[in-house]
Each structure stands twice: as structure tokens, then as C-alpha cells.
């Protein structure tokens, strides 16, 4: 996370070997993306902030199959995984569409389907939901949440609520790592949030303002409010 121009996409490009660092070192699973690009790229999948940059093939289905082709996956399995990935991003029926005729959100879904078909060890997702409608965003986040159990996911976003389940949040500002915290701690640190132009989502903010502790979902908040009311009535009876 971090403000516009903070350096998030630059980090993604460094990890992918598209940029060479002026100083310091980059290692992905122990490999340098510049000197060992094959080692890094066979383990990682990148979703660029601008989906135009990621789509290369004449038809949607070829684009989604691109990563699998590079890995030499057998034809039948490839067909199955491509169809499943296209379905999982809600683009069934788009197989023979030309990527350049798609809307921004549709392109973002195609790029994501390409990653989901491969399921690489490391996923670099640069604002993967920025162009999606609300249901699309929820579905993609659910899918990313599932992948997090077995993969490493670096998820760049401007929406704090997308990171509530993250193991840790890296805050990048002015090209520097300014904080590395658990989501709950970030949410509770008003100064850190403000310095980095971050606004906590409504539910956790309301819960904090009401002194109800940490709540993530509206259901958590409703439960905490009910408990408060119950405790209050108990005190009156005594
Ligand atoms: N090729 C480049 N040459 C020079 N400066 C660059 C280049 N690419 C990015 N920058 C600068 O580096 C800084 C970080 O850019 P970056 O794209 O990493 O930001 P970001 O955190 O991804 O922002 P956003 O939230 O807007 O996507 C910006 O000030 C940008 O202008
Ligand atoms: Mg960016």
C-alpha cells in the first residue's frame, strides 16, 4: 500500500526483472530476476496495473493459455485449465473475442484468468481489482484469498479492506518501505495511516470509534454492538 507515485508498481517491475535496480539486490525465491530471468519467471505470475500491457494473443483463449503453453502443459489439460480459468473470472463465451475489443474490466479479468490457469508459486498483483465491478471484485478477492493458502501473493491495492486478511502490510512511500505491519495494527495507527494517505474501511473505523475492538465485517460489528447492549442491560439489572 501507499500513495500514488510511492513506488509500488516499481517494486513489482523490479521483482519481475523489467527494471534493474540502481543499488541493492532483488531476489525471488533466491533468484535474481535480471541474471536468472527464467528461474524467476517460471515461478512468478504478474498482473500489471494496466491490463493493456499484459495481453498479447489474438484471442482471449490464447491469451489465457499463454503461460501454460510456455510451461509445456499437455493439450487436454491445458484446454481444461483454460476453460476453468475463463469461467472463474466470469468470461465464459468470450473465448474467441479479440482482447483489444474488450473493456478495461474485461481485459483485467482476462489477464487474471491467465494467472489463475497457471497458479504460479508467487503472484504479483498490481491493483488487480481496480477496474472490476463490485461483484467481480468480491469474486476475485475470494479466489485470491484461496490462493494465499498455498502461494505467495503480493497484492498492491489502494483499498485497505482488501488487505484485512493479509499476513503483513508493506507501506511504501517516496520509494521507501516506511512500515511493515499486521493489518490490525495498521488500522489502529491513525498517524501512520494519515502520513501515507490511507483511509481505513468503514466497518473497522466505526468499530474503533465506538470502542468495540477489531471488527472486519458488518456481521462482526453487529455482533459487537449486540454484546455491548446485552452487557449494558445486565449491568442495569444488577
Ligand atoms: N520509467 C520511469 N522513469 C522515471 N520515473 C519513473 C519511471 N517509472 C516510474 N517513475 C516514477 O517513480 C515513482 C513511483 O512510481 P510507481 O509507478 O512505482 O508508483 P505507484 O506506487 O505504483 O503509484 P500508483 O498508486 O499511482 O500506481 C513515481 O514518482 C513515478 O513518476
Ligand atoms: Mg502503481
SSE diagram, text form:
Layout: H1 8-16, H2 37-41, E1 44-47, H3 60-71, H4 75-88, H5 104-118, E2 122-126, H6 134-147, E3 152-156, E4 169-173, E5 176-181, H7 183-188, H8 190-195, H9 202-209, H10 218-237
Parallel strand pairs: 1-2, 2-3
Antiparallel strand pairs: 4-5
Would you write up a description of this structure?
The chain is mainly α and 238 residues long. The protein has a single domain (8-182), classed as Rossmann fold (3-Layer(aba) Sandwich). It has ten helices and five strands. Strands 1-2-3 form a three-stranded parallel beta sheet, with helices on both faces. Strands 4-5 form a two-stranded antiparallel sheet. Helix 3 runs parallel beside helix 5 (104-118) and helix 4 (75-88) crosses helix 5 (104-118). The protein binds adenosine-5'-triphosphate and magnesium ion. Residues 8-9, 49, 126 line the site of magnesium ion (MG). Adenosine-5'-triphosphate (ATP) is lined by residues 2, 4-10, 49.
Any descriptors?
mainly alpha; 46% helix; binds magnesium ion; 3-stranded parallel β-sheet; single chain; 238 residues; two-stranded antiparallel ribbon; Rossmann fold; globular; binds adenosine-5'-triphosphate
Summarize the structure.
Helix content is 46%, strand content 11%. The protein is mainly alpha-helical and 238 residues long.
Amino acid at each position: 500500500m501507499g500513495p500514488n507515485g510511492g513506488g509500488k508498481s516499481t517494486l513489482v517491475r523490479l521483482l519481475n526483472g523489467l527494471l534493474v535496480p540502481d543499488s541493492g539486490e532483488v531476489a525471488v525465491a533466491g533468484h535474481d530476476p535480471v541474471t536468472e530471468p527464467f528461474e524467476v519467471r517460471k515461478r512468478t505470475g504478474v498482473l500489471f496495473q494496466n491490463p493493456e500491457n499484459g495481453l498479447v494473443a489474438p484471442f482471449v483463449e490464447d491469451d489465457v493459455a499463454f503461460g501454460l503453453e510456455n510451461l509445456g502443459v499437455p493439450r487436454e489439460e491445458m484446454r481444461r485449465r483454460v476453460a476453468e480459468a475463463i469461467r472463474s473470472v466470469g468470461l465464459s463465451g468470450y473465448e474467441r473475442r479479440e482482447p483489444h475489443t474488450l473493456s478495461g474490466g474485461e481485459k483485467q479479468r482476462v489477464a487474471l484468468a491467465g494467472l489463475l490457469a497457471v497458479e504460479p508459486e508467487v503472484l504479483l498483483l498490481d491493483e488487480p481489482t481496480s477496474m472490476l465491478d463490485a461483484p467481480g471484485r468480491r469474486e476475485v478477492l475470494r479466489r485470491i484469498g484461496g490462493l494465499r493458502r498455498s502461494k505467495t501473493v503480493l497484492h498492491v491495492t489502494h483499498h485497505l479492506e482488501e488487505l484485512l486478511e493479509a499476513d503483513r502490510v508493506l507501506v511504501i512511500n517516496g520509494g521507501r518501505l516506511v512500515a511493515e505491519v499486521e493489518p490490525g495494527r495498521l488500522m489502529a495507527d491513525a498517524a501512520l495511516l494519515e502520513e501515507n494517505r490511507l483511509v481505513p474501511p468503514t466497518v473497522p473505523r466505526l468499530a474503533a470509534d465506538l470502542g468495540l475492538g477489531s471488527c472486519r465485517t458488518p456481521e462482526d460489528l453487529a455482533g459487537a454492538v449486540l454484546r455491548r447492549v446485552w452487557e449494558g442491560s445486565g449491568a442495569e439489572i444488577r
